[in-house]
Amino acid sequence: MADYKLIGKNYTTPDILAKVTGRAKYAEDFRAEGMLFAKLLVSPMPHARVRRLDTSAAMAMPGVEAILTADELPEAEAPQEAGLTNEPLYEGEPILAIAAVDEETAAEAIEAVQIDFEPLPFVLDPMDSLRPGGPNARLDGNTMAGRDLSTIKWDSVDWSEVDRGIMPLGGEVTDEWQVGDVEAGFAEADLILDESVFSASLSHQPLETRTAMAYWQNGKCFMHCSTQSTARTEGGMARWIGIDPTDLVLIAEYCGGGFGSKISSSIQARIPALLSRKAGKPVMMRVTRQEENFFGRARPGIQARAKFGFKSDGRVVAIDLTMVQDGGPYGRSGDYMSCADQASLMYQPEHMRVRGMTVYTNTPPRGAQRAPGGVQAVAMFAPIVDKAARQLDLDRLDIIHTNAPQGQALFGRPRQGRQGNVSSAFPKEAIDKAREEFDWEGMKARSGQRNGSKVTGVGVAISSYSAGTSGVDGLLVIRPDGMVEIHTGVGNLGTESFSDTSRAAMEALDTPWEQAEVVWGDTSKHLPWSAIQGGSQTTHGHTRSNWAAGLEAKKRLQEIAADRFGGSADSFEVGNGRVFRRGNRGQAMTFGQAAERAIQLGGVYDGSQLPEDINEMTTRSATALAGRGLVVAAKDNFETGGRNMSFCIGFAEVEVDTETGAVVLKDYKVASDAGTVLHPQNFAGQVHGGGIQGFGVALGQKWVMDPQWGLHVAKRFYSNRPPTILDAPHDQELAWSVADEPDPFNPLGAKGIGEAPVGAGAGAVLNAISDALGGNVDFNRSPIMGDMILTMLNPELDEAHNKLSTHV
Amino acid sequence: MELFQWGTNPWGQETLIRVSWDLLYLFFWAGIAFIVFHVVYAAVWLPKLARANGGQEEAAAAAGIPETIERHTLWARIFHWVMAASMLVLLVTGFFPIIGVQFAWVTIHWIAGIVLTISILYHIVHATFYLDFWSIWILPDDMDEAVQRVKRQMGQEASEIKKHGKYPLDHKLFHTAVMLAGLAVIGTGLVMMFRIENALVPRNAYLLSEPTWGLMYTLHGLGAVLFVMLTLTHIYFAIRPDKFWLTKSMLFGSVERERYLDHHDPDRWVVNKESASKS
Amino acid sequence: MAVIRDKMPAFQLFQPASTEEALGVLDQYGADAWVLAGGLDTWDWLKDRVKKPAAVVDLGGVSELSEIRSLGGGLEIGAMATLRDVIRHPEVSEQFSMLADSASQAASPQIQNQGTLGGNVGQDTRCWYYRDGWSCYRAGGNICYADTPTAMNREHAILGASRCVAVNPSDTAPVLVALDAEMVVRNSTGERVIPAQDFFIGPAVDIMRMTALQPGDILTSIRIPWTWANTRFYFEKARDRAVWDFPLANVASAAKISNGVVEDIRIVANGVAPYPVRFLAAEDAVRGRQVGQAVAMEAGELAINGVRPLRHNAYKVTLLRNLVKRSVQGAEA
Q1: Distance CA A559, CA A570 (A)
Q2: Residue B205 is nearest to which of C2, C144, C204, comparing CB atoms?
């Protein structure tokens, strides 16, 4: 790694003290004078139409101040949602909201609403909707074909196969692509595995629900909400409320987790804003845990048929995928497409064909969840590659290494007949390093060890996902007091990248972090146009933008110094909070002095004159900051070279009790290729936090729904079983290692690390369970729970469900 | 007082669950009220039957009417007592938990129900093919007589009333009520077997639609609370001294010729030597 | 009327300082009163507005109810002693380590700090249909939604069901039955002592209650006789998650063993039936015999005699058989 002063060093992030002392204010913690509380009336049915609605009794109750119904919202264009509806498409979909002086009154008012629903046909399992004569989740169709809602039924497939858990081939799909010639690929394969596989839908479950509070002052809407991004929430939120972005003040300094479900906050946040305008008072809508489970988004489940062709050396020569994604009732989430892209990247098949579609169901709306599609890819396909290694008598880490991409490998869906390339890929290097560091041979030696009824299993899996964007803006102000204000619009999801990436600017200025102040999370504080805090975009994107701003600031400082002391700008250097003449440190200005000079100079120095290429939002913010010091706005114009991708390789060791089906995770290590590590502590938090989320995918997080009524039965926080910290191995500290290969298209070599860790955790644990059971088991679905293990081990037990069953 | 118990289904829609158990108390007290009324009525108002059969005895003997006459065959009696026992078990197991006496009742209840069902099936076949089928049904004549009896009772002029056949109208009415309530509880009870664990049919709560199930439970409950009243009054009559000869006949099978001649019209209940009690 | 969940309605809160005072309030409100111990069961019900008591009687201020003390015949644990109190109490650990063990596996560390022993044994079932307010048998309706041809019943009963197939989820209850504990119950008319085994009742007897507690009753303490103190204990809980999870099944056994021969044993499991089930036939089969694989297997087989698995929980039969087997073999095996 290059010799950095800040990059790659641990430090205390500016938000952490407030978080651990409880001083940090999340959306729910704000109060405003005369504030009302809103409660929602949500659908008790999976699909229905409001037949009769009488709110007179509710509105007559003392303390009830306003009501908002779906009729008062602009109609959403299908398949998008409006936030409130008269035709709920899933259990728990909000119908109306009532604001009252307190929540008790609001809840009682909801109970006083006379409402009558007409039940409509519903469907929970995409397969049921594809069956000829099967119900559609939406009255206007069951899938999106291109830009249109349409209905597809699979008339020609053998449905008795589906009843036995076999994913049928030959049904019509909406999306298809191919590279090479899969048939030719399979013809040259030495081993073909053809499996039906399933990955379950699961909720995001952030600890902070999507609560929001809003009030209006002098025509401006002040919104306290929970969001992952700040700059990228402003426009959408303003549109939802129906105002100009300049009339919105968005305050969201802290976010209690989002995992992709709050990338641009949530449409439900419009409800308190509109209620507040109607009532003329501030309105707080605290979203309950149960409501969060209903409309807080979820990862889509995927039912797939995966055919993999291998050469005898383990090389994947052909992949043929048929995927049906459980799309929930709204939107156009395309996890299956990124699932295919990741399979293409991780296994690098020469020949690949993908057929897939999203089918709408009357289950909660789906959204991006930490490595959308990527986690499903690993959960479904890693066990197949693992199985191939056993059948070809290969080392299970070797087969991953053999197929892993290298350099600027091509992958994914071809555009104009050509696949795109990854900006950098060093998973092979990460594996080589981890093989030694993690003692893979030692791990393998423990595989199959028995301790009474407990058997040790060892699993390894590779996972990849997107790791960055480019072209966003940096904005900083060097103030007359010498402090460097680094403005960032990325939001504070909890990954700390809003701060970690700000350090790029200080690194460029070669100035201690103590002299920096990060400004974030409040649009009234003038934030630049930023990347979404999602898809692991920020680390790569904002090290670039802040590096650009830092370099630009450095240049202006040099110019100011040259102006003051004479000579050329490049005879001055910047460091330690000063700009000074090379070789004559006596000719120096502090940042404070330079800032005062910048104000006097005006023009490009104090923000009065701004670059043309920056985003309008950045221009607005920089203009507002103009005259406060040396104001620098810069667009990231650094070279790009392909899609930014990170890689993780998870190593799990489990103990499976063959008499109880209990799985105990004994150890978990992760190797990664994520470029330069910005902040090691935080990096560890990402790779292991993501890993734990993956354990949930592998070991138990799921929905359970009653098919007769179409309702959730496991919607409590404890009953849908997200993993807890005590599910993580705790006998020793969890190890991690990095390839430490900088990405060539980032000035600091940084790549994001938010997403790839989840799949690694899931895949490694799934493979470890199989390994403990002797390897030749085919659960072919996730999560794997104790009952499935006991059923697998005791053939006399009937399977309660088949491999493709959803929500069981 | 509620007539029905309503609940909500998982979708929050109102659905019929069963009859309100208020009806249990209503029918219980209605039965008691009837008994009290009848005790008073019998003591102060019921016209005493004149012993108007002087000389009939010899004629009867001459006509070959035996001294003891079989009223209920052994099989009929066995049926009656099996049915009575199962009915009592059903009432106790069905209602005691509701009034607060708790015990494991469901298995006993459904087994008693099956016993009742079999005994009723037997009874239907037996009565149809081996007994005087029409003797227990309410026929047009019965209605006529009923009108005349009421008229006489009210002191109005009435035509002469003949004695009963084998079963007086009140017995026939009781039988009809028992039959209707019995069919209701048995028919619904058999279907309700699908809602409980039992050895005969698999559980399937979705065998019928929700409203149909509500109707099943309601009919079962209605029949059952009716049985509370019917059983109370039936036992009351069975232990009344003036009716005890009938109870005895259900125990031992026969009535004395004297009772026969007192209460029955030999033309309507034809008795001959073959009718002599075999016991 | 529209339905709203996850928002606690208003109620009258009583915080008595003595048991007498608490009983007075319970008498006043009858069936409309709700006894609050640690609140882990209670707040769920109240927040979902499925149960709406008029009065909540918080026993948290009745200090006499949280004492743990040695009596002549055994140990008396106040019903309001927290699970943490139980885990940390030296005499519990020394004499009845299995109770501390089971308490430390209940729920989560945070819940152990707040939850009480009385609350843990008195808790209602976690059947997800019933808890979600579906008007099933247990809620006064006429249907069991968990045992239909399409029901989701992976976590339901394989034994002892009667119309309702919900299970008792307590981890400490089977231990107390195995230790032959007694439950001390008070109401305004006096005190009664109920053997733990009779304290838990199944739906066959009363489909709307899990225990012998009636409106107006308070479980004041639990007495564990010295009879089974320091015998060979075995407790195991099978669950999906390492923490904050109810048992798929658990087993508790106490055995008096001398020279490898089982003189006496009590084996109880929970999570498989609506009440902690004691396996008398298995106990009989084991008594008087040498501890070993064969006798343990036999006990396991006897324990699953008469099971009636549902569509999604056949695995519990195997699980129960194996747990009972292990409880006979002991932890050393």
Answers
A1: 8
A2: C144
Q: Report the residue from B17, B103, B206 with minimal CB separation from C205.
A: B103
Residue B43's nearest CA partner among B241, B271, B267, B247 is: B241
Instruction: List Cβ neighbours of B120 (8 Å cut-off, separation of 6 or more).
Output: B83, B182, B186
End-to-end CA distance of chain A: 48
DSSP label of C163: S
Give the CA angle between residues C204, C207, C212 to the nearest 5°. 90
CATH (residue range C12-61): 3.30.43.10
Beta bridge partners of A355: A176, A322
Those of residues 494-533 in A touching chain B at CB distance below 8 A are none
Domain A370-405+421-467+644-793 has CATH 3.30.465.60: no
pLDDT tens, C126-156? 999 999 999 999 999 999 999 999 999 999 9
| Residue C162 DSSP code | B
Q: With contact defined as beta carbons under 8 Å apart, do C92 and C223 qualify?
A: no
ipTM exceeds 0.90, yes or no? yes
Per-residue confidence band for A559, with pLDDT thresholds at 50, 70 and 90: very high
- C290 DSSP β-pair partners: C261
Listed by start position, the domains of chain C span 12-61
> Alpha helices, DSSP H only, in A86-178?
103-111, 126-130, 159-163
CA-CA-CA-CA torsion for C17, C21, C27, C33, nearest 10 degrees?
-10
Orientation of helix B169-192 relative to helix B210-239, angle to 10°: 140
**DSSP one-letter code for A366:** P
Please provide residue A197's backbone torsions phi and psi, each rounded to the nearest 5 degrees: -135, 160
Place of tokens 């059923």: A791
- Residue ranges covered by each domain of chain A: 16-22+470-635, 370-405+421-467+644-793
CATH 1.10.287.130 corresponds to the domain A16-22+470-635? no
Q: Is A576 exposed, middle or buried (0-12, 13-18, 19+ CB in 10 A)?
A: middle
Domain locations in chain B as residue ranges? 58-275
Cα separation, C287 vs C268, whole angstroms: 15
Phi, psi of A656 (to 5 degrees): -110, 125
Token output for A289: 């845990």
Mean pLDDT of A349-358: 98
**Rounded Cα–Cα distance for residues C232 and C178 (Å):** 12
Contact C163 B196 (CB under 8 A): yes
Closest CA to B175 of B96, B79, B255: B79
Q: What is the homologous superfamily of the domain B58-275 according to CATH?
A: Transmembrane di-heme cytochromes, Chain C (1.20.950.20)
Mark A475-508 as b/e (b = at least 16 C-beta within 10 Å). bbbbbbebbbbbbbbbbbbbbbbbbbbbbbbbbb
CB < 8 Å to A709, chain B: 9-11
State how beta strands A298-299 and A202-203 pair. Answer: antiparallel
B206·C308 Cβ contact <8 A:
no
Query: Is the peptide bond preceding residue A744 cis, with omega within 30 degrees of 0?
Result: no
State the smallest CA–CA distance between residue B119 and chain C in angstroms.
26
Give the residue carrying structure tokens 């950098």: A424
CB contact under 8 A, A660 and C151: no
Distances (CA, A) of A308 to A158, A183, A375, A402, A765: 22, 11, 18, 15, 21
For A699, the token pair is 């070991």
- Residues in chain C, pLDDT under 70: 333
Distance from CA of C35 to the nearest CA of A (A): 22
A189 and B CB contact within 8 Å? no
Mean of the pLDDT values across residues A573-589?
96
User: Token pair for residue B220?
Assistant: 């079962």
Pairwise CB contact (< 8 Å): A786 & C315: yes
Written as six digits, the tokens of A689 are 């936090």
Which residues, in sequence order, are bridge partners of residue A365? none
